[in-house]
């Protein structure tokens, strides 16, 4: 039964009827709820390991959940899993039951309810996001480069949608998503490139990339009919604060994002032009927005983030005041508030 769900989440089917979607990332294979309507199930599932694919360094190990199936209502509850020194938990329900016509065949497109949380997952151990190793020189071994981003990822998603496949579901998603990276570091070169400080970036290339501590990396997103829009999204380092605006259209699989850097140190080489990330998921383009942005405009963007930014931590961990008080993002929030006065 779990194998039958795989095509909806991107796994290849073993038959010849599986259709490729040129230029698309997400599959459009439909779940067979007609078959599910003929059976009931109540199963405790425990898997030793789940391989998430080539983009991940570590498997999920172990994974536990409780599966029930009653008349087109599939529930995966009490999900507990571990990976990269962190944990995943939550529940998923897929309901294709039509109370007014329970014998309808095929059943209507199912309603999805997704409640998932991740906690303290080490990004550098979970994702294969690392710079290329340097070439070995005469008499010395190649240096092991730092990861582009490290830290403990905590996140939470409360999403609802409708559809027979992943593509249809994503096109209809509504809800809320938030992420925070604690005790993290990010590539110095990426930060300088985002700020378009040519002198600093060249210096980093010459001396070698050293990671910068992230005082705060937090993003809160709203989903409405398959379009993700950030309420607040920023990365704060000792040299630059980078904000993200725009949207991600999951239905059309299109990016329309703007990254705006606000450097904390003056440099005559800082261009201050926003970076645009646009185009399809399978072939995104990175370009510069025409014309530099004034410093006062960048400052206004940061001030507009204060209230939505302050709501991210309570959504992730309501009632955890002690942990929130220690969060580096609280310091960033206070700095943003200070700019208002």
From TrEMBL:
* BP-aspect Gene Ontology terms: regulation of protein targeting to membrane
Leader sequence range is: none
* Superkingdom to which the source organism belongs: Eukaryota
Instruction: State any GO CC term.
Output: plasma membrane
Name the Pfam families for this protein.
AsmA
Describe the location of the AsmA domain by residue ranges: 39-252
Q: What name has this protein been given in UniProt?
A: AsmA domain-containing protein
Native source organism of the sequence: Hyaloperonospora arabidopsidis (strain Emoy2) (Downy mildew agent)
